[in-house]
Write a structure and sequence with these properties.
This protein is of the alpha/beta class. The protein has helices spanning 23-33, 42-51, 85-89, 120-134, 158-166, 175-180, 242-258, 283-291, 294-308, 348-354, 383-391, 406-423, 482-491, 496-499, and strands at residues 13-17, 57-61, 64-74, 103-111, 139-144, 184-189, 203-209, 226-236, 263-265, 311-313, 317-321, 324-332, 338-342, 356-357, 361-367, 370-374, 396-400, 426-430, 432-434, 450-452, 464-467, 474-481, 513-517. The chain folds into two domains: 11-209, Gcn5-related N-acetyltransferase (GNAT) (Aminopeptidase, 3-Layer(aba) Sandwich), CATH 3.40.630; 227-491, Carbon-nitrogen hydrolase (Nitrilase/N-carbamoyl-D-aminoacid amidohydrolase, 4-Layer Sandwich), CATH 3.60.110. Strands 8, 9, 10, 11, 12, 13, 14, 19 and 22 form a nine-stranded mixed β-sheet that branches. The longest helix has 18 residues, at 406-423.
Length: 520
């Protein structure tokens, strides 16, 4: 099998500011999303870009605009409680935009019907929230449609309808979505949008409060940069089809998404679970059969990363390239792009039973949560790799592992914690548990997954953000703070990165290729 071209599997999703060349595609998108409502005119969108280009966002998927949102800044106290959409937007032109305003007012969000379910709307809302934090804004306010209200208009008032939606007795595609994204209902406004017949012209006035808002200044001070991580302690059990494997994987990604995770980490070679699909007793032949599922594996994880809006380290998988077998960990970014890290140090067991070959490139990956590195199991036991990764900007090192006894597990754990201390970096380990009774060389598993920190006052007492119970099917969820890490590196009790005696020693990489991968 030749080396795979990963670009054929990528589904690139980009959130960016709207440009002038996007105006016509956005007008077309609105006619698709809201066929019964009066669409934007070109003059409206040009005015948005003239007055507040930073507040206009779109989502581009595979080169096509599939979502957009518009907004402006206001001092909301200056507007009447029962204002209309025309009042707050100056009839759609936002010439009333106030650069010194304290509230970001959202006036439009739309997502192409064929792309709903991929969390396009959530990405747009997150872009607004990030803008509000960057600009030190007090809150985000929106006038939200209630498009299912016309089905209940004869049965209840709009206020009662909103209450029923909030109590989850009724589903409304817009109001339910906004509540799930942290917005609270302030009141219900009548005659908000005259052409919104589905909402019977009503709208919910909703607000998201910026907890980082500093009322004494317009400057933004970053006090925290939390990143949420889910480490999956994956249960190895016999399966009968690839679809069973896919359902088990999606369950964990769904859990990570429900927790609001930025990253989900799966264990090393957990795809050997696929060996239970065929009765092959010779390990070297079984591993080659697993490689036949490489494209299915990549397509599955690419889809899940985009669908659930989570960056996934897909454990690792055996891949055949030019008739050689490699142990490769893949990074599936939530924007649809893919990267990979070859295992550098191959264990004696991998060589003996499966004939696994070693990689020769150490990579550091750029993500929407900063730079990370991946070290597959045995690799974390060699400190030079972590030192390089941190020198290149990595703040988190993910270590998928697979061990069959407590001694092997402790080698991984102790070394991961040592890397966290000596490099002032976060480390995360995730392993497999359970057993595959019909698979040679994958008999039993031992794991206790965890998230670790440096050891200093700024972090958890024992340097442990979270850890699982040993040998149970579960996940570990925890937050690491990149801003706390940055400050600790500068002013911690000890500063290993600064205090290295470079006048006495240094690390030289010989035939090893090193690379920093930017996410463009």
């Amino acid at each position: 099998m030749s080396k795979l071209d990963l670009s054929q599997f990528e589904k690139k999703v980009i959130v960016r500011n709207i440009r002038h060349e996007d105006i016509k595609p956005i007008m077309n998108l609105q006619s698709i999303c809201f066929p019964d409502m009066e669409p934007w005119e070109e003059a409206h969108l040009k005015s948005h870009l003239e007055h507040f280009p930073e507040g206009q966002f779109c989502v581009e998927a595979d080169g096509e605009i599939v979502g957009s949102c518009s907004s402006l800044l206001v001092n909301f106290d200056e507007y009447d409680d029962q204002h209309t959409w025309d009042d707050i937007t100056d009839e759609g032109y936002i010439t009333n935009h106030d650069p010194e305003g304290y509230n970001l007012y959202g006036i439009e969000v739309m997502v192409h019907p064929e792309y709903r379910g991929l969390k396009i709307g959530r990405r747009l809302y997150e872009a607004r929230k990030e803008l509000a934090q960057q600009m030190n804004l007090k809150s985000i306010i929106i006038g939200g449609r209630i498009p299912n209200y016309h089905q209940y208009e004869d049965q209840m008032s709009p206020r009662t309808y909103v209450k029923e939606v909030m109590n989850k007795n009724i589903y409304d595609p817009v109001l339910t979505f906004q509540i799930m994204n942290g917005f609270t209902v302030m009141r219900v406004n009548p005659n908000y949008l005259p052409d919104d017949q589905a909402s019977s012209k009503y709208a919910t006035l909703m607000e998201w409060n910026n907890v980082d808002y500093r009322p004494t200044t317009k400057r933004y001070f970053k006090t925290s940069y939390p990143v949420r991580i889910t480490a999956v302690q994956y249960m190895m059990k016999n399966i009968n089809t690839f679809d069973e494997f896919a359902r088990q994987v999606e369950y964990y990604v769904d859990v990570a998404s429900d927790f609001g995770s930025d990253f989900a980490l799966f264990p090393e070679i957990f795809t050997t679970q696929l060996m239970s699909l065929f009765n092959e007793k010779i390990p070297s032949k079984a591993v080659r059969k697993v490689t036949e599922y490489t494209e299915d594996y990549i397509e599955l994880f690419t889809h899940l990363a985009v669908k659930y809006n989570v960056n996934i380290i897909g454990g690792s998988h055996f891949v055949e390239e030019q008739d050689q077998i490699y142990n490769i960990a893949y990074l599936f970014r939530r924007d649809g792009t893919i990267e990979k890290q070859y295992k550098i140090h191959v264990t004696p067991n991998e060589k003996k039973w499966w004939g696994i070959q070693a990689g020769d490139t150490v990579k550091v990956f750029d993500t929407d949560c900063g730079k990370i590195a991946i070290q597959v199991c045995y690799d974390v036991q060699f400190p030079e790799l972590s030192r390089y990764a941190v020198d290149q900007g990595a703040n988190i090192i993910f270590c998928p592992f697979c061990t069959d006894d407590r001694q092997g597990y402790l080698r991984v754990r102790y070394c991961a914690q040592a890397r966290a201390v000596e490099n002032q970096v976060y480390t995360v380990i995730a392993g497999t548990v359970g057993n595959l009774t019909q698979v040679e060389n994958m008999d039993v598993q031992y794991a206790q997954s965890g998230i670790f920190t440096p050891s200093d006052f700024e972090f958890a007492r024992d340097g442990i953000v979270g850890e699982s119970q040993p040998n149970t099917e579960t996940v570990v969820v925890g937050d690491v703070d990149l801003e706390v890490l940055r400050r600790q590196r500068k002013s911690g009790t000890v500063r290993q990165l600064r205090d290295r005696r470079k006048d006495l020693f240094e690390t030289n990489y010989k035939n090893l290729t090193t690379e920093v991968v930017e996410n463009e």
